[in-house]
Target: Ribokinase
Amino acid sequence: MKSPRIAVVGSSNTDLVITCARLPQPGETLLGGDLHRYAGGKGANQAVAAARAGAKVSFIGGHGADDFGRAAKAGLRAEGIDVRHFRSSEKLPSGVALILLGKKDRQNQIVVADSANAITPADIDLAAPDLQKADVIVAQLETPIPSVRRAAEIAREAGIPFVLNPAPAFPLLAALYRLVDTLTPNEHEAALLTGLTDPEQAALALRKKGCRRVVITLGTRGALLCDEDGFFHVPVPKVKPRDTVGAGDCLNAWLAVGIAESLPIREALRRAVHAASLKVTRLGAQPGMPPRADVEAFLRRKSR
Model:
């Protein structure tokens, strides 16, 4: 089977992770465990997950001319990802994410200094020839919205499905919603975008804004699809979680690969949920992304 081509427009960060007994309350100081450093960033995470899912991946983003940036670029290149449009900035430092990981519930809090992730629409235009070769284009909101919109316009002009993971959530222009084929917020982001806390109502509201389909991720409750055929819920298989960082990125990548492979959307989502569930059993955002063979074996075990 021909490998699908995925283009990811997005962020690359270095994740600095501290595990603590629980997440702190506002104004509270906690003693945590050791500090760990991992390659991260929603865009780079999705690129690695898609590459391990068997796709040919190109990554469009930015990094600083520093040790973090050089390590990030080398890591993506080692995964077989095309990094010709992963540009270096002499003026801005590489992105960094500070992550607190709760030991008991494995939930996390993340703050990102996006820095060199601030790519411009002109950067997107320079990458247009590669974007136009993709089977699916994926983006998130850790890069500026004008650049995301330009990528969406290129996708629409070329007839390429555009998957937007609106994380972190910002108010979006109506014109951008109409360029999105698949919108993939988590339930908190969906609520911020719509003012509605019920996932089904939020999904309907987002579709009315112009998206072809909406997938809302629900954490330990799985994922909810809303499209022209109605609602479809995929539950999470039972696993023992170790690290939830990057789980949503894993799901987005596998969903994009499934769309690129022309799988029925419900089957693509089922596979994506299983891939994300397997990811949470492994440490590190990018290091924990499961290879395709592992996901296929996991699916077989959980289907018995």
